[in-house]
């Protein structure tokens, strides 16, 4: 029988043993808890979570929400090569499918912001969706959700990004505004407060937010089209908006089509029937072809299939392609097909050419199919 005074790791002082366990990333926690009751109690203790929080040892996370998952987020730990489910968000509005939200990581917290909830009521099938101002935050140290301060304006399908440790939101849809919003807000997670900012020059909905060169870019739903060559840009230091002539060669149909890695190196998916990946360097405004999103090979299908509805994420020095769906055509040639939902995860280092895509552990249940939201969190290197 184990006693309450038994050492965490025999032969080591408990403070050093606690440090050793705290250095292990979140993907190992399930395995650690099976070692002994003592280790399970340590991993679930406030001392453990507080120690990791104090040291900033959040680990690296890849958060994903897929279709038909009943708002159940899952997370990937690349160090442990392990997927695990997060606790469900216990909110009354979560009974319907959540969509049109934004998700970002800031200051070792993962935020799910705003969005719409589609009611599932067969008696009243034409109900309008509920548009939310809620902000829910996930703490990787306590592994729990909590409510943060709500946005001042409920919105869905809006631009959102993090610039210098603050969350910026702009535009979007509301139930009462058909043309889109010009309203802009910024959130300070330290004070847990939202602040109104000067409105955008033009109202926008179905827009995409991007942090680029220390500025907040708002890209409209027309971006990628030949006639759309301007972007609205907010300068946080001057609190002013201006318009720049620029070309972003991606389709807004890919909600997660832009990823900014270190040194403002941008990667985007151009999905006009080709799913090619392009990159852009800060000192040059030109886009360069990097490679393509690889097709999927199903074991019972004779030819490779192009994926759609997948997620596109950057974590450390890797690009990830997650989930999605493919159309599996019948071999008889009668024009019939099945939609196959995927849980596969592929990644590559975009600096190595040609791109060498590799598969890692597939997403865990209930995650499969089209990606509704994905975001990453990176642990800061120790000084």
Automatic annotation (TrEMBL):
What are the F-box domain coordinates in residue numbering? Answer: 10-47
State the UniProt keywords alphabetically: Kelch repeat, Repeat
**Which Pfam families does UniProt cross-reference here?**
F-box, Kelch_1, Kelch_2
Keyword Repeat in annotation? yes
- InterPro entries linked: F-box_dom, Kelch-typ_b-propeller, Kelch_1, Kelch_2
**UniProt keyword annotation of ATP-binding present:** no
The record's listing under PANTHER family reads: F-BOX DOMAIN-CONTAINING PROTEIN, OS02G0202900 PROTEIN
Q: What is this protein called?
A: F-box domain-containing protein
């Amino acid at each position: 029988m184990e006693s309450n005074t038994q050492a965490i790791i025999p032969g080591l002082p408990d403070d050093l043993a606690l440090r050793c366990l705290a250095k292990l990333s979140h993907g190992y926690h399930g395995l650690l808890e099976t070692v002994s009751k003592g280790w399970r109690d340590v991993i679930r203790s406030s001392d453990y979570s507080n120690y990791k929080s104090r040291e900033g040892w959040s680990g690296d996370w890849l958060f994903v929400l897929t279709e038909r998952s009943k708002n159940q987020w899952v997370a990937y730990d690349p160090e442990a090569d392990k997927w695990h489910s997060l606790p469900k968000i216990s909110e009354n509005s979560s009974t319907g499918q959540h969509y049109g939200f934004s998700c970002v990581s800031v200051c070792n917290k993962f935020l799910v912001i705003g969005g719409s909830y589609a009611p599932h009521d067969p008696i009243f099938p034409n109900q309008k969706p509920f548009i939310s101002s809620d902000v829910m935050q996930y703490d990787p140290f306590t592994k729990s959700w909590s409510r943060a301060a709500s946005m001042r304006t409920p919105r869905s399908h809006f631009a959102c990004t993090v610039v210098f440790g603050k969350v910026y939101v702009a535009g979007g849809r509301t139930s009462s505004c058909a043309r889109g919003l010009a309203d802009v807000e910024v959130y300070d997670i330290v004070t847990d407060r939202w602040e109104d900012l000067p409105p955008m020059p033009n109202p926008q909905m179905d827009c995409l937010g991007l942090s680029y060169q220390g500025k907040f870019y708002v890209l409209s739903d027309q971006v990628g089209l030949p006639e759309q060559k301007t972007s609205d840009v907010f300068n946080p230091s001057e609190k002013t908006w201006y318009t720049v002539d620029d070309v972003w060669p991606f389709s807004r149909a890919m909600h997660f089509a832009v990823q900014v890695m270190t040194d403002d190196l941008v990667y985007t998916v151009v999905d006009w029937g080709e799913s090619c990946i392009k990159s852009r360097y800060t000192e040059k405004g030109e886009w360069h072809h990097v490679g393509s999103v690889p097709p999927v090979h199903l074991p019972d299908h004779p030819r490779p299939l192009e994926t759609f509805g997948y997620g596109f994420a950057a974590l450390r020095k890797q690009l990830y392609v997650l989930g999605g769906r493919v159309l599996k055509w019948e071999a008889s040639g009668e024009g019939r097909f099945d939609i196959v939902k995927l849980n596969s995860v592929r990644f590559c280092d975009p600096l190595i050419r040609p791109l060498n895509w590799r598969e890692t552990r597939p997403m865990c249940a209930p995650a499969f199919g089209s990606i509704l939201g994905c975001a990453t969190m990176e642990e800061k290197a120790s000084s």
